[in-house]
């Protein structure tokens, strides 16, 4: 596997009681896959706040 690209956008500090990550496959092909991830904090009263967004792409190396 090769890394095709990777980005992280830090939006605010991760302060809260719980840190939650939710990842999804945005695209999966025969040689390439792209995933996204959102990181949120949850405070004491249950309010979620987005603190970072990431995206990564991997490519299968040909042999």
Automatic annotation (TrEMBL):
Q: Where is the Thioesterase domain?
A: 5-45
InterPro entries per record: HotDog_dom_sf, Thioestr_dom
Q: Which Gene3D superfamilies match?
A: Hotdog Thioesterase
Q: What is this protein called?
A: Thioesterase superfamily protein
Q: Which organism is it from?
A: Kribbella steppae
Upper taxonomic lineage:
Bacteria, Bacillati, Actinomycetota, Actinomycetes, Propionibacteriales
């Amino acid at each position: 596997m090769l890394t095709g690209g990777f980005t992280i956008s830090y939006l605010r500090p991760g302060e809260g009681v719980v840190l939650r990550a939710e990842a999804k496959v945005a695209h999966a092909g025969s040689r390439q896959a792209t995933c996204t991830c959102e990181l949120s904090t949850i405070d004491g009263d249950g309010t979620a706040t987005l603190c970072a967004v990431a995206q990564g792409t991997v490519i299968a190396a040909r042999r």
